[in-house]
Each structure stands twice: as C-alpha cells, then as structure tokens.
Input
Amino acid sequence: MDSDKRDSRSSAIFDDWNRNDEIRGNFRTKYWTQVCEDCRQQQGLPDEFIEKGSGQGICGVRRCENESDHYYDFDSTELK
Output
C-alpha cells in the first residue's frame, strides 16, 4: 500500500485505505476506509460520507486497532 492519507475534511490520518471513485451528492471521493465508532466521533468525520453499520475489519485510522463499524469515503491531502 502507498503512504498514509490525511482526510481533507477532518484531522484524521488513515493507514489502511483503498482507491475509490464514487460520487456522493456533489462530491467525488477518491478513497475509502473502514472506521470504528470511537474514531468517527473523535475525528469528527462528516456523516454524509459514512456508511453506518457496514464496516468490516480493522479501523483504518492510524494507530487504531479496533474492529470497524462503518465505511468512510474521503478525499486526501498529501502528508508532509
């Protein structure tokens, strides 16, 4: 996998993500990951990009090893 990705809509950094090309409302998302409920709340991930209750596997937020609860579609800015 490539390097970690920073979400352009929150402070979240993801260490487990996949390429995506999905249209959500007026937005086209480039990546998706899975997130646990704790990280969703702590990172302030916007609800319009969350597929609640559909996550499988380990949370994609860096340094979190919880089981995921949701899928999250996001765009990314480069990490420095």
The beta strands are 5-7, 13-14, 18-24, 27-35, 50-51, 70-74, 76-77. The first helix runs from residue 37 to 43. Residues 5-77 form one domain.
